[in-house]
Design a protein that fits this description.
Helix 1 packs antiparallel against helix 2, helix 4 runs antiparallel to helix 5 and helix 10 packs parallel to helix 12. The protein has 366 residues and is mostly helical. Helices cover 72% and strands 0% of the residues. It starts with a helix and ends in an 11-residue tail after the last helix. The protein folds into three domains: 78 residues, no CATH class; 136 residues, Tetratricopeptide repeat domain (Serine Threonine Protein Phosphatase 5, Tetratricopeptide repeat, Alpha Horseshoe), CATH 1.25.40; 110 residues, Serine Threonine Protein Phosphatase 5, Tetratricopeptide repeat (Alpha Horseshoe).
């Protein structure tokens, strides 16, 4: 069994390989790290690096529930303010990722109260900026509480360079919360503040990112409230702007590639959900062209092509790539056919089930 130092090294190496090429990452490293967690759990003096490593193992295995257990235990230690802030943020996030929304909202409220007492005001936007966490407030029918806290934070959090990213993330999340509630004026106000925030940026790329994310917030609104013609027109304008500002994927540096991969992906998401498959395909392919592509990118593109009679081999290939990039591992078809309704007609097809499942030997929990 791995000792504590070996556990950190094994997980660091696995994550490096996964980022480089998910399909070629050596999952045996993850398997031995999963077993090595038992050794770590015998101690009650984890370093911040060990706590992060333990959480990484659980995330990459697809056992966020065990990650939450580890975070709760870590929080019983005597921690520095920064270590406790990290653990509280990730526990809130872990509950949200597990769809334990009641627990997520309760933990989020506790985290914010702790942050007000323990962190300087410029850090408070970070506490409340995450979209997955905010979605739990919507699911628990307390979105108006979230909005009230957001509005209060915008008046008390100082605008400094150190929290520009946090303020951007908070505004983007607010735009999406307002959009989910069909509150057009709230979205418009958040978008206007995002565009003003872009004026603070010191580089063109940083400003472009915020400007385009503001346009994507509008796409998310039009997906919810329509009309379809407005969504399509806004999407085409966004595509034209991105294409005009983009870089050469063959010569650009890594940060530029990540930027455009992310922007094209994020713009494709509301188009996929709105069943605007033609436009969604364009954005998702662009994201992959720039080196992007998480499980959602590949899964959505596969679903779009299947829905529009695309090449059968490419549909299956994209499903396989989605499975390799999915942290949950194992047999993913039962979840994919629920999350991707375009595959309803092949829900019992063994060929699709095989494509959306990792080889059994690649699942380290077996």
């Amino acid at each position: 069994m791995l000792d504590r130092a070996q556990l950190v090294d094994e997980v660091r190496e696995y994550v490096r390989q996964f980022v480089a090429n998910p399909q070629q990452a050596d999952r045996s490293l993850l398997g031995s790290a999963w077993e090595g967690l038992d050794n770590l759990l015998e101690y009650d003096d984890w370093s911040p690096e060990e706590a992060r490593t333990a959480l990484d193992v659980c995330v990459h295995i697809g056992r966020q529930d065990r990650g939450n257990d580890i975070l709760r235990r870590y929080l019983t230690q005597r921690l520095s303010v920064e270590a406790e802030a990290w653990a509280r943020w990730n526990l809130t996030d872990g509950y949200a990722l597990c769809r334990e929304c009641e627990s997520a909202v309760k933990e989020h409220r506790r985290f914010l109260a702790w942050a007000r007492a323990s962190l300087p005001p410029h850090r408070w936007a970070w506490v409340f900026m995450d979209g997955t966490q905010a979605n739990c407030w919507i699911q628990q029918d307390v979105a108006q509480d979230w909005i009230a806290i957001f509005r209060e934070l915008t008046t008390v959090v100082p605008a400094v360079e150190a929290n520009r990213e946090d303020r951007f993330q908070l505004l983007r999340t607010a735009g999406r919360v307002f959009g989910e509630l069909h509150q057009t004026q709230g979205v418009e106000a958040a978008v206007a503040k995002m565009r003003a925030l872009a004026g603070e940026c010191e580089t063109g790329e940083a400003a472009l990112r915020i400007q385009m994310e503001a346009a994507i917030v509008e796409l998310n609104l039009y997906e919810k409230v329509g009309p379809g013609a407005r969504l399509r027109a806004s999407a085409r304008a966004t595509l034209s702007e991105l294409d005009a500002r983009t870089c050469d994927p063959e010569t650009a540096d890594a940060p530029a590639l990540r930027l455009f991969a992310s922007l094209y992906h994020n713009a494709g998401a509301p188009l996929y959900r709105a069943k605007e498959y033609g436009l969604a395909v364009t954005f998702l392919r662009r994201s992959m062209q720039y080196g992007g592509g998480n499980a959602h990118t590949y899964g959505w593109l596969s679903a779009c092509l299947h829905a529009t009679g695309g090449d059968h081999g490419e549909v299956l290939s994209l499903l396989r790539e989605a499975a390799w990039r999915d942290y949950k591992g194992g047999n993913l078809w039962s979840r994919y056919r629920r999350k991707l309704p375009e595959f309803a007609d092949v829900a019992e097809d063994p060929e699709f089930a095989a494509a959306a499942s990792l080889p059994q030997q690649a699942d380290p929990t077996r």
